[in-house]
Each structure stands twice: as structure tokens, then as C-alpha cells.
Amino acid sequence: MNWRQRLGAFIGGFDAGQHHRRLRGFRATRAHVNALIAASGPDITARARWLVRNNGYAVNAVESWAANTVGDGIKPISKIGDAARKEELQRLWLAWTDEADAEGLTDFYGLQRRAAREVFMAGEVFFRIRMRRAGDGLTVPLQLQMLPAEMLPLEQTGSHPSHYRRRTQHGVFGAVPPQERIGQWNS
């Protein structure tokens, strides 16, 4: 035990940093989380999906987490003073929520629930914003397409001419504050 460990034991310190009987044999890895995900991310994701398909407890955990995370979903409230414009905007929003899913499987609130399930199982999810033609017959010519985490290869990293680019658990972000998304690889 070095002097820092003895000092930590003397003044209390963090339990996780102590070397008492319970933690004496615990040797945690010091590898960076991105290196760990790159090494075993696909296997972990595949196993999580298998568990959700084949284990009732896993299904209940996913459903419970998604329900508690999303709740009723995003419901915007307009601060427009003109009542007629506010009503029109609300009507467009409600019409769009029914047409938001590019795959036609669910509505906007169902997309939020599916995204929460995906985040619980795979750690991330991506959405592609799809602008539609006016002739497609949609109230608002915009739809969202949900892409699972496997659509973004873990080994695919690179640099952008104007920004540093890296793959993190949440996609590709620029190195310049405020860490805005600058791009992503899609297969």
C-alpha cells in the first residue's frame, strides 16, 4: 500500500478507492471507454439484442426504461400570441406527428419510444432527416428515419478538413466548442 492509499484509508476517501478485504482482488481496467467499445461493442450489442428477444426479464427492463425515459413524449407548447396562428401550428404539429416515421411503422411518439429502446440495448441510435417532395402528399414534407447503431461501423473514424472528427458513443462531434455534430459515417 503506497502513501496515498494509506492517507486515503486514514481520512476516509472513497470506498471504491479503498483496498479493504472486499475490494482487494478487484482489478479494474484502465483502458479508455472508446477502446473498450471498439474492441467488444458489436458482441455486447448482439448479446443485448439476443437477451431482449429471448428473456422476459430483459424485455421488461427495456420496456420499463423506455416508458420512464420517454413518458408522454415531446409535446411542444407554442408561445405565439396570435390565437389563429397558434391553432394552425398546433394542427400542423399533430398532423406531422402521425406522418413522422419514414418507415410508416408508428408515429412521432412511437419513434421516441423506439429510440429509447434502442439506446437501452445498443447505447446509441441515429435519425436521418428526410425532406420529402410536395407531391408525396404529406402535410409537412419532412420525415424521420430511425437507423440502428449497427448502421454506423465502430471502426470507421477519420478526419474532416476543417475539424477533428472522432466516433464517440453519441456519434461524430467536432473538437471545437460547443461540440456540435459535424458529420457521421453511414453504411
Question: How would you characterize this protein structure?
Answer:
With 187 residues, the chain is of the alpha+beta class. The chain has 2 domains: 31-149, no CATH class; 152-187, no CATH class. Helices cover 42% and strands 11% of the residues. It is built from 5 helices and 4 strands. The protein has helices at residues 3-11, 33-54, 56-70, 83-99, 108-122; strands at 125-131, 142-148, 166-168, 171-173. The strands form 2 sheets. Strands 1-2 form a two-stranded antiparallel ribbon. β3 (166-168) and β4 form a beta hairpin.
Summarize the structure.
It contains five helices and four strands, in the order H-H-H-H-H-E-E-E-E. It has 187 residues and is α+β, with helices and mostly antiparallel strands.
Number of domains: 2
Fraction of residues in helices? 40-55%
Structural class: alpha+beta
What is the overall pLDDT average?
Answer: 81
**Strand elements, count:** 4
Output the radius of gyration: 23 Å
Which H/E pattern describes the elements?
Answer: HHHHHEEEE
Lay out the secondary structure.
Layout (H helix, E strand, L loop, with lengths): L2 H9 L21 H22 L1 H15 L12 H17 L8 H15 L2 E7 L10 E7 L17 E3 L2 E3 L14
Antiparallel strand pairs: 1-2, 3-4
